[in-house]
Known about the structure:
- The chain is α+β, with helices and mostly antiparallel strands and 88 residues long.
- The chain has a single domain, classed as Alpha-Beta Plaits (2-Layer Sandwich).
- 33% of the residues lie in helices and 31% in strands.
- It has helices at 12-30, 54-63, and strands at 2-8, 34-39, 45-50, 72-79.
- It has a four-stranded antiparallel β-sheet, with helices on one face.
- The longest helix is centred in the first third of the chain and has 19 residues, at 12-30.
Amino acid sequence: MMILELAFTASPERLxxxxxxxxxxxxxxxxxxxxxxxxxxxxxxxxxxxxxxxTELGRILDADPYYRTPGVEVAGIxxxxxxxxxxx
Length: 88
């Protein structure tokens, strides 16, 4: 499982790109590759939880131009091994 953390700035490009990005995320969720995603309450960034390997996450990031949009920064990518909860 992979965790992606994003950092945001108040860029108009980011806000314009967000609807297409969210549609892409909805498709990943329907396919079971994205378990959860959402912005921090203060909209300073977001957290996404993927049920994929690191190489597949790289392909996902390459396929969605949102991650290269001004105002969006990939702040971190970490492998996660949950031991409690419905995710494993």
